[in-house]
Predict the structure.
Amino acid sequence: MNALGPSASVLALIPHHDCERWLGDALASLIDQTRPPDAIAVIDDASPDLGALMAVARQYPQVTFLTSDRNVGPYALIQRMMTDTNYDGYLFQDADDWSAPTRVESLLRAADATGAELIGSWEMRVLCDAAEVLAVTYPLDVSGALAADPTAFSLLHPTSLVASHLVSRVGGYSTGLRFSGDAEFLWRAAHAARIVNVASYGYHRRKRANSLTTAAATGLHSVARLELHEALRAEARSRHQAAANGQQVDLTPYATATVPVLLDHLAGPQLANFRPTEVAAS
């Protein structure tokens, strides 16, 4: 049953690594929402300078700041937060981007109106090196787009809001992946829920040098990412064929970390719905 709507409890999740320069813009945009999230959490991925992060934390005392025991990538961080908390929905936000003021309100209204459990929006793409801004749209009916092409890039993950029930039904995120886990989750979720985009530019995304999608080792055209994408596309096509044949679809995450990440509280309020799970000693 879909639990998302205007009264749903929402935790905004901001994975962070060495992005203090832009983090204030992301936080201010979420705090100033017409319908703010119930809580905001910055989950630091073992950044090299916690002093710089703490300087930001002092400016935003209403935000919860946590840090991981080691560098694991964004999907292990957000999955840990989802496992340890109990919110109806989770809003994603990259640390170097910012949201339009009505973003949360629009996504919750769309969830209520359509019954969708994963809802994204269009983006304003800020090309930092070119000093240019592009308006980028995605299909409104994401489920329909993925039914036609199971590997379509039809939803930008950081623009989205996801229902906790959906995350549970598909086994969570691929915590063993450092990149491409957003597409992998989307392609699995398409077999378990309705997915839509709202027709509004709710998200402003910086395209800058040395981000996860532009760095030489992890960028969209890197060998490692291209090889992983081909493996993920093959799995998506296999699930699509199984569904077409009336067979049970395997929604198991592609790669799960063997050792769960541990999070330490740095600053800000304790999350009201925080219930840390026990982690067995390795």
